[in-house]
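By way of example, what follows is a protein record of this kind.
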Amino acid sequence: MRKRSMVRKIINLSPLVDVFMIVIFWYIMFSSQNLKNQEQEFQKTIDSFEKTLSEMEAECEENTALKQQIKSLERENERMTAVMEYEGRYILLWFSGGLTDQREVKVILEENTQELSFSSEDREKGEFSAKLKTILEKYFGTGKRCNVIFLYDGGNSYARDITAVETTILTLQKEQYFVYTKINLSR
């Protein structure tokens, strides 16, 4: 008799297994949906970060351009300061005789005037540039700030002559700071 009572006491667990399977299925479905929702939120966040990054890159490029403008304005400010400075001096280079065989550059500083005549051959050999450089270096040697003004008549001169004078001035400007102004009188 005892065996029969034991058999009768066995509980049927199949409904419990069914409930357990339903809970597992429900959990899998909702966790899958949660993962999809999280993926969508992460994608929105990534898109937002990419948009912000592109905006920041554009601002960085704009800042670089602004920095270049600031440097340019600072250089211009230094030039203007040199022009307005009390002890600044003006060196005037006056190019004349533009289409003749012998051209002339007058270098004028205060009451000192030096005339430098040259031909196309002197210019091609580099003798003219060397002489002009020597004269200008003598004026720069005083230590005072200088403002160099180059006057010429563009309609009555050779472009090579103007370029030779300007190249000499720009070469000197790399070695020593001074304000350089080029004025075409034909305009």
In short: Residues 63 and 69 are 10 Å apart (CA to CA). The mean pLDDT is 80.
